[in-house]
Design goal:
The complex is a heterotrimer of chains A (about 300), B (about 260) and C (about 375). With about 260 residues, chain B is mainly α. Helix content of chain B is about 75%, strand content about 0%. Chain C has helices at about 1-5, 60-65, 110-120, 125-135, 155-165, 185-200, 210-215, 235-240, 245-250; strands at about 20-30, 35-45, 50, 75-80, 80-85, 95, 170-175, 205-210, 220-225, 230-235, 255-265, 270-275, 275-280, 290-295, 300-305, 315-325, 330-335, 340-345, 355-360, 365-370. In chain C, strands 6-7-8-3-9-10 form a six-stranded mixed beta sheet, with helices on both faces. The chains are: A mainly alpha (about 300), B mainly alpha (about 260), C alpha+beta (about 375). β1 of chain A pairs parallel with β1 of chain B, so a sheet runs across the interface.
């Protein structure tokens, strides 16, 4: 990852004197205070006792975890969250890959303007994009209400539509991440290799399958992991678009934290979410590495 | 021809990406006092009214303040750290680098709960300072990574030449190193600012009552109460601002260079 | 221009057969620049033709047009008599080696070479046989299971060549494939390429900016500048009779002497030059009074301390500088009205020194007439 334009930059770095490392201290202190300690506090809170008067009591207990694992309500929630994560990731990567490919072939104003459009959700608050979709879906929401009232539509169907709407908005919001990462990854492959394959007689789909995808697999993996982590921890979009009809972990975390004030249980849910993200990261990395035999060869 | 199909697809996606902001425009010109689509009538009155909305403007100002301060702290700390990490080898350097990616890797909704608990014991709950610091910690990994790239591409031979010619450390820093870092620092500042300004999750949990940031204020209007077409009006303006900032940033700095990494 | 373009003076090897590759009136504009202008080129089967020229002359673009990676704005490109303008690269049965070699890093050398063969539907046994043949052709047996990152630059280059030749293409295209190699390796590969070409007799188009490579490898060289082929001819004829100032100075070193014709006697012309009269052998139709530019190669000059008994051309000069090049000595001379550069192969004996007064002598046939005075 280190971009060393001159070979002296990294390998021959001077051995550290204490004085030289002092500039590192402020950042490390900030990280310790506002990252490490909060994470520790979170873990600790998950094993504290819940008390609806004082929110929590600093006595160790596994009651919260037991409550989580024994209640099917939470299992459903985890399942819904996973579905949201996987569907979003799948469609976002699928949709974003060709766009990134096209972007690597152009430059100048065309590239800037097209990028401005495709990366749009990144540089405005997610509320702007979500609000836009909310407005777009309003008539549909209205239509749904009318149909249900008229007895022409029943529960499950509207729930299905709601899920679809959610995924659409999620894909929309996360597409920029895929495009950014894949554009960089595709750039690294280089036009020459693709042209070589063309002259050797490979049709476009073959090139995609046997050249592009294997060589951009690290990019696919990292963008997929990023989108997965972001999408299953999203609060705003499920709340706005499905209006609480779909229950995902972040919504429960929010309501337990601010409404019900059961911080221990909220912490448990957060830890569970974290474990899911970490597990998915490892699993995905391992799978993609195995698929392309990455340990055996290096990019040239 | 295949090339043509790809271009059509790319432009179709671009059109869809722009669609939502285009939706906020018609929603903000309705004459009704509530948000409805399609709009009823036509008026531009909601745009100035958005700026007359006290709490909304206050949250806007607050967002800007927080963004400035948190970006400044993140870039300052990140800059110092980038130098220390890039220029010196020490045991645990890789561990430190991994540590820096932490706040980015952990989903915000998890980190914010930890911060909430921590602040509670410190008495920082609901304070502006607490919120600012939480925005800062989110921006720090990104600022660090950007500046690391910047430091790594410095031409050390210029520094050595200056030293041979008799410059002391401070002079080298100010007159050789910082001019080269200008672009990287500006990029880090801009992206840190934007990350803070657009952040939603942190303020959702940590902001005190009546002291929210713009995204949360807009959300409360939409989801809880107080929704008017001023909200889509403000959205549209924010969208416009964002686009202009992006175009400016890309033409001068090159967005892909700074945001792309992490692929290979 | 028309005379230069047609290359009429140079008959390609295998003349009389239908050209394997033909470009007629090809144009290409990239951005705002006309990179290739009204290009005409005909290449016979089995020929080795080099496109030689400075950066930006359009040689790589021409190669990409032939490969089908770019489409021409005007004109036709024909392979084996068929007009292939609209054909995708996949269809054209070509082999190509890129400057970066473009090996697939996630495939072994075997899989790289087999890539094109598998696409043609060859069975596993045939593929294995062909890959082995190719690897022994490029003198690289035993690297089948290695990945490109495990191979040296020279080896990667050979694998790239093997990959391009594996499918038995009609035409082999080489885009500066030796540029990324160091000096010694480059010279080795030049000889290898020549050997492989002699063995396979594949029609080959080679792009380079190195005039040495062009002269060593080619049956014919097309010298390009600003999108046009300035001259196309055999290396010998191009070197000896450059005919234009550009070709003359691009291919090797040259002294350029200018003067006015004083007398014409059959095939011999007398030209008045600042340093004295020059005798030139030429069949060009000239009359006294005409201005003439002449090219003189440094190696054609002999340095003598005393004037030869009956010299054809002998110019008195002072040695300004002597440069030792190992196999040769380069003398920089100052004569009346001209600075000359002379090259002599070191055959022992004391070299002349700076400040010596000498005579620069050369044959009448050593002077070559330049057409664009």
């Amino acid at each position: 990852m280190t971009v060393a334009a001159y070979p002296t930059a990294r390998r021959r770095a001077a051995p550290a004197t204490l004085r030289a490392v002092i500039p590192l201290a402020p950042a490390l202190i900030l990280l310790a205070l506002f990252f490490l300690i909060p994470m520790f506090e979170l873990a600790r809170m998950s094993v504290y006792e819940y008390n609806h008067v004082s929110v929590y009591v600093p006595r160790l207990t596994t009651a919260n975890y037991r409550a989580f694992f024994s209640d099917p309500y939470y299992a459903t929630m985890v399942w819904t969250s996973l579905k949201v994560g996987f569907f979003t990731t799948f469609f976002t990567v699928l949709a974003g890959y060709p766009v990134a490919y096209y972007l690597t072939g152009i430059d100048g104003w065309e590239r800037t303007l097209l990028s401005a459009a495709c990366l749009f959700p990144l540089f405005v608050t997610i509320l702007v994009g979500t609000l836009g979709w909310y407005i777009l879906l309003l008539p549909f929401g209205l239509t749904q209400k009318v149909l249900v009232a008229a007895g022409l539509l029943h529960g499950p169907l509207s729930a299905l539509n709601t899920f679809t709407a959610l995924i659409v908005v999620m894909v929309y919001l996360h597409l920029p991440y895929v495009i950014l990462i894949m554009a960089s990854s595709l750039q690294g492959v280089g036009r020459d290799k693709i042209n070589a394959a063309r002259v050797l007689g490979a049709p476009p789909v073959y090139i995609l399958r046997r050249i592009l995808v294997p060589l951009t697999m690290p990019g696919i993996a990292s963008s997929a992991i990023l989108v997965f982590a972001l999408s299953i921890s999203s609060y705003l979009v499920p709340v706005l678009i499905t209006g609480q009809r779909l229950r995902v972990l972040p919504m429960a975390i929010f309501s337990f934290t601010t409404d019900i004030l059961n911080w221990p249980l909220a912490s448990v849910l957060s830890i569970v979410l974290l474990v899911i993200v970490v597990a998915a990261t490892y699993a995905f990395t391992a799978i993609t590495n195995r698929l392309t035999g990455r340990g055996r060869w290096e990019m040239i | 021809m295949r090339g043509g199909l790809l271009r059509v697809y790319a432009y179709a996606v671009a059109a869809v990406m722009v669609l939502p902001i285009l939706m906020t425009l018609p929603a903000s010109v309705t004459t009704t006092a509530y948000m409805t689509f399609p709009p009823v009538g036509f008026t531009l009155a909601w745009f100035p009214k958005a700026f007359g909305d006290g709490p909304l403007v206050a949250s806007l100002v607050r967002s800007v303040d927080i963004a400035f301060v948190s970006a400044a702290i993140a870039v300052a700390a990140g800059l110092a750290a980038a130098f220390a990490v890039e220029r010196h080898a020490f045991r645990g350097r890789d561990l430190v680098e991994t540590l820096f990616t932490g706040p980015q890797m952990v989903p915000q909704i998890i980190l914010v709960l930890g911060l909430l608990i921590f602040y509670h014991s410190l008495g920082l709950s609901g304070t502006l300072l607490g919120l600012m610091l939480s925005h800062m910690i989110i921006a720090l990994p990104f600022a660090f990574r950007t500046l690391l790239v910047s430091v790594a591409t410095l031409d050390r031979r210029l520094e050595w030449s200056a030293a041979i010619l008799g410059a002391n450390r401070r002079q080298i820093l100010w007159r050789i190193i910082f001019p080269q870092m200008k672009t990287g620092v500006i990029a880090a500042l801009i992206f840190s600012f934007m990350s803070s300004f657009t952040n939603f999750t942190m303020a959702l949990f940590l902001a005190g009552v009546g002291r929210t940031t713009l995204p949360v204020e807009m959300f409360n209007r939409l989801y809880v109460a107080g929704m008017t077409p001023a909200i889509p009006a403000m959205s549209f303006l924010l969208g416009l601002l964002g686009v202009m900032m992006f175009i400016a940033a890309d033409r001068t700095l090159g967005v892909y260079k700074y945001l792309g990494g992490g692929g290979q | 221009m028309a005379m230069a373009q047609a290359g009429a003076a140079a008959q390609p090897r295998g003349a009389g057969l239908e050209p394997m590759l033909e470009l007629v009136g090809v144009e290409k504009t990239l951005g705002k620049t006309r990179v290739v202008c009204d290009l005409h080129l005909a290449i016979a089967p089995g020929e080795f033709v080099t496109l030689l020229g400075p950066s930006g002359c359009g040689k790589s673009t021409t190669l990409n047009l032939i490969a089908g990676l770019l489409k021409p704005d005007a004109g036709t490109i024909s392979l084996r008599g068929h007009v292939v303008n609209a054909w995708e690269p996949q269809r054209r049965r070509l082999g190509m080696v890129f400057q970066t070699w473009a090996l697939f890093p996630h495939m072994t050398a075997y899989e790289n070479i087999a890539f094109g063969l598998r696409l043609k539907g060859l069975g596993m046994r045939d593929v294995r046989e062909r890959v082995a043949t190719m690897l022994s052709l490029v003198r690289l047996p035993g690297v089948e299971e290695k990945y490109p990152s495990q191979l040296s630059g020279g080896m990667q280059q050979r694998v790239a060549l093997a990959r391009a030749l594996a499918t038995r293409p009609d035409v082999l295209l080489l885009d500066e494939p030796l540029s990324n190699l160091d000096e010694r390796l480059r010279k080795e590969m030049q000889i290898e390429l020549r050997r492989i070409h002699d063995e396979l007799r594949v029609t080959t188009i080679f792009v380079t900016h190195s005039q040495e490579e062009a002269l060593v490898l080619s049956d014919r060289v097309a010298v390009m500048n600003n999108g046009v082929i300035v001259r196309i001819d055999t290396p010998e004829r191009l070197y000896r009779y450059p005919r234009t100032r550009f070709v003359c100075t691009f291919l090797g070193e040259a002294n350029i002497l200018e003067g006015v014709v004083t007398a014409v006697d059959g095939g011999r012309v007398l030209v008045d030059h600042a340093s004295g009269p020059l005798a030139v052998d030429t069949s060009a139709p000239v009359r006294p009074g005409v201005r003439m530019s002449l090219a003189l190669r440094p190696e054609a000059i002999s340095i003598r301390l005393a004037r030869s008994p009956d010299p054809v051309n002998s110019i008195p000069a002072t040695i300004r500088d002597v440069v030792y090049k190992g196999e040769a000595l380069v003398y920089y001379l100052t004569a009346a009205g001209a600075d000359l550069m002379a090259l002599e192969y070191a055959k022992g004996g004391a070299p002349r020194a700076e400040g010596d007064q000498v005579f620069a002598e050369f044959e009448a046939s050593a002077l070559s007439v330049l057409e664009d005075a």
